[in-house]
Automatic annotation (TrEMBL):
Domain Dienelactone hydrolase: 38-219
Domain of life per record: Eukaryota
GO molecular function: hydrolase activity
Gene3D superfamilies: alpha/beta hydrolase
The name this protein goes by in its record: Dienelactone hydrolase domain-containing protein
Signal sequence extent: none
PANTHER family: DIENELACTONE HYDROLASE DOMAIN-CONTAINING PROTEIN-RELATED, DIENELACTONE HYDROLASE FAMILY PROTEIN (AFU_ORTHOLOGUE AFUA_6G01940)
SUPFAM superfamilies, sorted: alpha/beta-Hydrolases
Family matches, as InterPro entries: AB_hydrolase_fold, Dienelactn_hydro
Length: 257
């Protein structure tokens, strides 16, 4: 497991945002414990989105991205589980790559941390609230988890991916069951080979990449300073691209229902 340097040594920004949603309790206990989940978006939408945070957790910019996507393109019910049981990455670890890698291995292990169970429980909650279609995305390591979830047999997702994705490789997408949207920053490697690999699967919607060479790693999450007009513009475009992509796959699925 490797991370870009910017993920290992950049502090979160001092951002502000008044959440439009609220935390609630996930309908299913995970490993015997109640877990929280952030819910936002119009309650009458039948389109659901699962969102997975970056290691800095529910930073104001992260929540702003969730709230804005939930209100975009006709609206979505968005559910973001508090996947890190012991809290976000300790800032004291920034700059210490070995310590960070050890923390990542412990806190972003897809099976051992019960990400798979939390994601499916969140889907069930959205289904109970009327959702009939689902996509999943994440920021940074959250994108890695989202693609893993969308690679499971019988998974319900119509699209996956996310901004400034970490650990995203051709090998990661070899079993993905739906198209992928990737929005790398200036700090990530080119991901066109990943998109080309997924497009060989001939999904109804083509996979898509848009690079943001004017934005740093984490600009749609804990390291996003949207008081910077250029970063704000890039963030709004990312929200529009993600919301539009998820709306497109949902519309196609709804026609087949």
């Amino acid at each position: 497991m490797t991370l870009v340097d910017a993920c290992c040594n950049t502090l979160p920004t001092d951002a502000e945002w008044q959440p439009k949603g609220a935390d609630t309790i996930l309908g299913t206990k995970i490993d015997g414990h109640e877990r929280k989940i952030y819910r936002t978006g119009p309650k009458d939408s039948k389109r659901g989105i699962i969102a997975i945070t970056d290691p800095l957790g529910f930073h104001p910019t992260t929540i702003q991205v969730y709230d804005r996507i939930a209100e975009s393109h006709g609206g979505f019910q968005l559910a973001a589980p508090h996947v890190m049981k012991d809290g976000p990455l300790p800032l004291s670890m920034l700059g210490d790559r070995p310590a960070m890698m050890e923390w990542m291995m412990k806190n972003y292990n897809y099976k051992e941390c019960h990400f798979d169970q939390m994601i499916l429980a969140a889907v069930r909650d959205l289904q109970a609230d009327g959702c009939t279609t689902f996509s999943i995305f994440g920021q940074c390591m959250g994108a890695f988890i989202a693609i893993r979830a969308a690679s499971e047999p019988g998974q319900p997702f119509l699209a996956t991916g996310g901004p400034h994705p970490s650990m995203t490789t051709v090998e990661l997408v070899q079993d993905v069951k739906c198209p992928v949207i990737l929005l790398p920053s200036k700090d990530e490697a080119d991901m066109i080979p990943i998109i080309e690999a997924v497009n060989k699967k001939n999904f109804a919607v083509e996979s898509f990449q848009k690079r943001y060479d004017n934005a740093p790693h984490g600009w749609c999450g804990g390291r996003g300073d949207w008081s910077d007009p250029e970063i704000f513009k890039a963030g709004l475009e990312a929200v529009d691209l993600l919301g539009g992509y998820f709306a497109k796959v949902a519309e196609i699925a709804e026609k087949d229902q």
